[in-house]
Amino acid sequence: MAIEIKMPALSPTMEEGTLAKWLVKEGDTIRAGDLIAEIETDKATMEYESADEGVVAQILVGEGTDEVKVGTVIALIALDGEASVRSDSVAPLPVSAETPAPVLAGAVAEMADELALIDAAPARKASPLARRLAAAKGIDLSTVAGSGAGGRIVRRDLGIDLPAVAAPAPAIVASPPAAILPPPDVPHDTIKLSTMRKTIARRLSEAKQTVPHFYLAVDCRLDALLALRAQLNATLEGDARLSVNDMLVKALALALADVPEANVQFAGDELYQFQRVDISMAVAIDGGLVTPVITDAANLRLSAIAARSKALAAKARDGKLQPHEYQGGTASLSNLGMFGIRQIIPVINPPQAVILGVGAGEQRPHVIDGAVGIATMLTATGSFDHRAIDGAVGARLMAAFRALVEEPLRMIA
Amino acid sequence: MTYDLIVLGSGPGGYVAAIRASQLGLKTAIVERERLGGICLNWGCIPTKALLRSSEIYHYLTHLDAYGLSAERPGFDLTRVVQRSRTVADQLNAGVKGLMKKHRIEVHEGVGTIPARGRLIVEKDGAKTELSAKTIIVATGARARELPIAKADGERIWIYRHAMTPREMPTRLLVIGSGAIGIEFASFYSDMGAEVTIAEMLPRILPVEDEEVSAFMAKALTRQGMRLVTGASIESLETGTGGVTATIRTADGAVETSEYSHAIVAVGIVPNTENIGLEALGVALDRGHIVNDGYGRTNVEGILAIGDVAGPPWLAHKAMHEAIICVEKLAGQNPHPFDNGNIPGCTYSRPQVASVGLTEARAKEAGHAVKIGKFPFIGNGKAIALGEAEGFIKTVIDAATGELLGAHMVGAEVTELIQGYTIARELESTEAELIGTTFPHPTLSEMMHESILSAYGRALHV
């Protein structure tokens, strides 16, 4: 009897993912513990470890297939010695909420809900026909504006060219469909979106549409911090060596510990005020962005922050972050200083209430003791969720951050 | 008197536009030269349905035996049959009067002309009233097209208005034109006892319907004793004391001359665009209809047009659809433009015809690969129990997407069933949702479900 290998869930809330790569082919013999496929979600690629032994009889879902629902049969394994068990009529299983999702080796199930949930009420959001056409054309409905009743997405919003329907009507001014098609005369490639890209698109659109952002900027004098860093790095080796960013992480964490009213999360009728500071660090990776979390950053030594951030960044770039390493966080830090950016005004990372954007440290004219001198300055901009944080609280946070950056020895006080 | 909006014409397009405008807070006036409710209510849709109800019941009355019933000497009083239809029209006319009052729409009786943008003059019995408004909606409707060779005299040659107020029963009736109006009159008079001949210029009757509908109706009406002549052109129509003599040439070149007691001319309509002032204003027309942009706006600012005067299909509910969209757009909302793709068409003959969307031929012409579903009335329990086993429900489905492209029905009560499919199309359902819907049993509506199943080889009852 064939064993069905099913699409695994990388977290309890995952509903679908991409079967990125097969590591075995039909006819290969596998043993328990062998890695047989790479499964990709918005944040990470995980390797699927086989729990079974036998011969790969049939691969049912091809490499690169996305939107494979959790529970879908992706391959059949025949027990050694069995006759071929190819099945032509194995249909993908419908996913029920009660189906227990197999947990991958190494994934620890400790989740804040950061992964996408399929629309809870799709009938409200898109017509059945629009949903079908979108699926057939690979259009992500979360990026389409709906012009139907109540913002419902209807077929015309997809902008797909359909066979002309003969209608004996005079010239009609059609309402413009959502701009999905590129201008016809511009040469272009069509790049299929990764799960990560789609998630970024969806979450940040949601952030901009639902979170009332306000922004506070401070210019911080960096000279003392740079000097302290040089002094400390002379005593540190390897991964423990500090970057400017590591010190900014610590400064932000301590500032949040000093202004706990800014270490919050809006939750409708309630506000969660966290008793620990976990900083999500924005890390640019191939094709997108992930935010590994430095847990309890306020209480970590600078060298520990340095080591941890290096390890997480490396894992992020390799696509090997575990869910518990990128989910959660009570506030975020986004640093584009390495690109020479003077100021970044970031988008809040929901459900957090604050994200700090920092630019490059650069030599600027600066008033020192009543005269114009030169100082190394850095512009830091906090973006705040006004539902959870008011101007005064935000301002106190920014002031605390700046004080820690400009007089870094306060970090050990 | 100044308003936000003046509506010229109070038919289904006009009075609905006025009501919607009032609901949206616009100060509105409506101008009507005859009776509130326009043609539909007074000389069209409504009274003909009342007449057809009488002929339907009379048909049962003359076929009671099949139901185990009997009656002595069933008969009718034509005057009272007609009077009933007039009473129904009067009742609805009073209803529209009441609606105008309720919605505080000022009614101006008389003939309206537009001397300049923003101004409208109402003339009645020599007196003139001047109205002004930023926007004027022209909803003047249409009238029957006449044959160039013979004008309707109301005695022997009838147009619709005469046909619905006959003073005598035709014995041999020639119906010229087999669109919905011609077929309905043919059905009415045939059931009331006249010998009916239908002459149609095109190769098949009910030419806008699906081919299978035309073919089925041709057989059904022929079985009822009507004579159908297609590919026919009327060479002459001469009236005499006893009736009408018609010379008809058919496509094969044959010419026949035949005698009738009366002839009804139902060969289409002509939009009412004359004597309003549209030419002087420079309003663009296309084959007689007022050109508009899908929201009723013409090339002249402040002049809009909806309903029969603005183009096909010449149906009351199409006019109502345009009225709502046009006014909502005026009021600053953002509706989709007019969409004639989902306007159902109904013919209240016996059997009835109802359809929406594309015919099979049109769907294929437009490039769709199609699945066709068909279910006959004879397979439906309710149809048999009613003794109405004649008819079918045909569905045209896009093979690639499952979209319901069109539905075409013949048989008892189909005019009441078609709304199910128009709702499904409006919601952009696919075959999956329709198949997943539970229809009540025993009803004729179950055939709507079976027709979709049939397209996928899954019909249960046939």
Topology readout:
The complex is a heterodimer of chains A (413) and B (462).
Chain A: E1 3-6, E2 16-22, E3 29-30, E4 35-40, E5 45-49, E6 54-59, E7 65-69, E8 73-78, H1 122-125, H2 128-137, H3 195-210, E9 213-221, H4 223-233, H5 244-258, E10 264-267, E11 270-273, E12 279-281, E13 283-285, E14 288-290, E15 293-294, H6 302-317, H7 323-326, E16 331-335, E17 354-358, E18 362-368, E19 371-385, H8 391-406
Parallel strand pairs in A: 12-16, 16-17
Antiparallel strand pairs in A: 1-8, 2-4, 2-7, 3-6, 4-5, 6-8, 9-19, 10-11, 12-15, 13-14, 17-19, 18-19
Chain B: E1 2-8, H1 12-23, E2 28-32, H2 38-43, H3 45-61, H4 78-102, E3 106-109, E4 111-116, E5 119-124, E6 127-138, E7 142-144, E8 157-158, H5 160-163, E9 172-176, H6 180-191, E10 195-199, H7 211-223, E11 227-229, E12 232-239, E13 244-250, E14 255-260, E15 262-265, E16 269-271, H8 278-281, E17 285-286, E18 289-290, E19 303-305, H9 316-330, E20 345-347, E21 352-357, H10 360-365, E22 370-376, H11 381-386, E23 392-398, E24 404-411, H12 414-426, H13 431-436, H14 446-455
Parallel strand pairs in B: 1-2, 1-6, 2-3, 6-19, 8-15, 9-10, 9-15, 10-11
Antiparallel strand pairs in B: 4-5, 5-6, 7-16, 12-13, 13-14, 17-18, 20-21, 21-24, 22-23, 23-24
Helix pairs in contact in B: 1-9, 3-4, 3-6
Describe this structure in words.
The complex is a heterodimer of chains A (413) and B (462). Chain A is 22% helix and 24% strand. In chain A, a hairpin with a 4-residue loop joins strand 4 and strand 5. Chain B is α/β, with parallel strands linked by helices and 462 residues long. In chain B, 32% of the residues lie in helices and 27% in strands. In chain B, strands 1, 2, 3, 4, 5, 6 and 19 form a 7-stranded mixed beta sheet that branches. In chain B, helix 1 runs parallel beside helix 9. The longest helix of chain B is centred in the N-terminal third of the chain and has 25 residues. The N and C termini of chain B lie far apart (65 Å). Chains A and B meet through helix 2 of A and loops of B.
